[in-house]
TrEMBL record:
One of its GO terms (cellular component) is cytosol. Gene3D superfamilies: 1.10.246.120, 1.20.5.4770, VPS9 domain. Residues 27-61 form the A20-type domain. Its main location: cytoplasm. Keywords: Acetylation, Cytoplasm, Endocytosis, Endosome, Metal-binding, Phosphoprotein, Protein transport, Transport, Ubl conjugation, Ubl conjugation pathway, Zinc, Zinc-finger. This is Rab5 GDP/GTP exchange factor. PROSITE patterns: VPS9, ZF_A20. It is found in: Cytoplasm; Early endosome; Recycling endosome. Residues 486-505 are annotated as: Disordered. Signal peptide: none annotated. InterPro entries: DUF5601, VPS9, Vps9-like, VPS9_dom_sf, Znf_A20.
Length: 505
């Protein structure tokens, strides 16, 4: 396969551990078309670029048609011979032969000249329209989608006005294509994709040669055309029921969930999320890649991937304080995909591959980042102990959820452990300390309360004892005082009263 990911096992020698460790490496040449034409390749095209893949595909199909044809011819001959020998009826023989001729012609026109067929109005009328309408999702989503479709149509027409006469022709071609596609819903998704690719190629050629549109305006027109037709095609060709796209989506999602324990260090991701700016970039990159699913136009989806990739490059650049290399990029992209677990990842990749204007995927930054994303997904599917620099036992234990590497590392943080995890363990630590303190305070408070109760009881008892021992006996006032005074007859013989004196100590 084209994505022969060069995963090297890492030397577990300590001296290599931090600086030299390389878990994931994809040679940049492996991102290119395996035919050596210089365009970006793609796993969906078996490592070819869109152009070479179509050539190969056509060749293979022509060969198949030729073989079918030869087989049909032989069977027909045998049948004819058998028939002739048994009955030798002239009329029946020519009938069979004419049927065969008819079949042959049909096959030729159907399979060989798909391109031409696009630009001739189909004889069949909208019999299938009701079926397509019935397939549509919930009414509210539908309404929203149709508002968007109307808006895109208006914008498209406004845009085409600036192209004058060619604008009208472009519009006609698009309409024709959409009509044709409406009658081709029973074709396989690959065949529908081929129709779209033929259409892009044809319109681009016409723009340049027939309508003499200047080159700088061709690309812009192609983008608008893609937007117009794919906004309308989306609901029929995104993750269609006839494919196993949805099954693949679920498989990837499950796989990513199972790999939740993978740390940046295992992937050798040069991103330090403790730096607030870096963590900001990581969050933005994750948001971008998740946002891809909400777009309907392949090119808008590609733009999300490109935005995500640029945030990744920035995160690396800030961490390393130097421009990011392509070698740093892929592992970080893998890390972002693992963290984000973007919805319907395979469906989106398939949809872009099938229905994006191929020139976008073959060259330029959009093509480069898209190829890297495909590579990242292929890597995630193959991820093993070796590529993460783990022993098979550890890998198995982490995969089955028996233990988590984060738990093991919590006591001794390596300097580049994820900021969030580090913070979480710090917080847990703090919480348990606070808990201890709170318990201590509650206990002391209880003791204080008891002491207070004891003290109050003690005082009450003492007072009661004294009151019992020395009951307060109040005698009548005037009588007692008068008696003391009246008996005080020998007052003169008493000693003088004591004077207050200060004693030291
Ligand atoms: Zn190629």
């Amino acid at each position: 396969m084209f994505l022969s990911l060069t995963l090297f096992s890492l030397n577990r020698k300590k001296m290599n551990l931090k600086s030299e460790r390389r878990g994931i490496h994809v040679d940049q040449s492996e991102l290119l078309c395996k035919k050596g034409c210089g365009y970006y390749g793609n796993p969906a095209w078996q490592g070819f670029c869109s152009k070479c893949w179509r050539e190969e595909y056509h060749k293979a199909r022509q060969k198949q048609i030729q073989e079918d044809w030869e087989l049909a011819e032989r069977l027909q001959r045998e049948e004819e011979e058998a028939y002739a020998s048994s009955q030798s009826t002239q009329g029946a023989q020519s009938l069979t032969f004419s049927k065969f001729e008819e079949k042959k012609t049909n096959e030729k026109t159907r399979k060989v000249t798909t391109v031409k067929k696009f630009f001739t109005a189909s004889s069949r009328t909208g019999a299938k329209k009701e079926i397509q309408e019935a397939k549509a999702p919930s009414p509210s989503i539908n309404r929203q989608a149709s508002i968007e479709t109307d808006r895109v149509s208006k914008e498209f027409i406004e845009f085409l006005k600036t192209y004058h006469k060619p604008g009208q022709d472009i519009y006609k071609q698009c309409k024709l294509f959409l009509d044709t596609m409406n009658h081709k819903r029973d074709l396989s998704i690959e065949e529908q994709s081929e129709c779209a690719q033929d259409f892009y190629q044809n319109v681009a050629e016409k723009l340049q040669t027939r309508w003499k549109v200047p080159p700088e305006k061709v690309e812009k027109a192609m983008d608008q055309i893609e937007k117009y037709i794919m906004t309308r095609q989306y609901k029929y060709v995104f993750c269609p029921e006839t494919t196993d796209d949805e099954k693949k989506d679920l498989a990837v999602q499950k796989r990513i969930r199972a790999l939740h324990w993978v740390t940046p260090q295992m992937l050798c991701v040069p991103v330090n999320e403790e730096i607030p700016e870096v963590s900001d970039m990581v969050v933005k990159a994750i948001t971008d890649i998740i946002e891809m699913d909400s777009k309907r136009v392949p090119r808008d989806k590609l733009a999300c991937i490109t935005k995500c990739s640029k945030h990744i490059f920035n995160a690396i650049k800030i961490t390393k304080n130097e421009p990011a290399s392509a070698d740093d990029f892929l592992p970080t992209l893998i890390y972002i995909v693992l963290k984000g677990n973007p919805p319907r990842l395979q469906s989106n990749i398939q949809y872009i591959t099938r229905f994006c204007n191929p020139s976008r995927l073959m060259t330029g930054e959009d093509g480069y980042y898209f190829t890297n994303l495909c590579c990242a997904v292929a890597f995630i599917e193959k991820l093993d102990a070796q590529s993460l620099n783990l022993s098979q036992e550890d890998f198995d234990r982490f995969m089955t959820g028996q233990t988590s590497p984060k738990k093991q590392e919590s006591d001794s943080f390596s300097p580049d452990v994820c900021l969030g995890v580090k913070q979480m363990y710090k917080n847990l630590d703090l919480l348990s300390q606070l808990n201890e303190r709170q318990e201590r305070i509650v206990n002391e408070a209880k003791k204080l309360e008891e002491d207070l109760i004891d003290w109050t009881d003690g005082i009450t008892k003492e007072v009661q004892d004294i009151v019992e021992k020395y009951p307060l006996d109040i005698k009548p006032k005037n009588q007692a005082l008068a008696a003391i005074d009246s008996e005080n007859v020998e007052n003169d013989k008493l000693p003088p009263p004591l004077q207050p004196q200060v004693y030291a100590g």
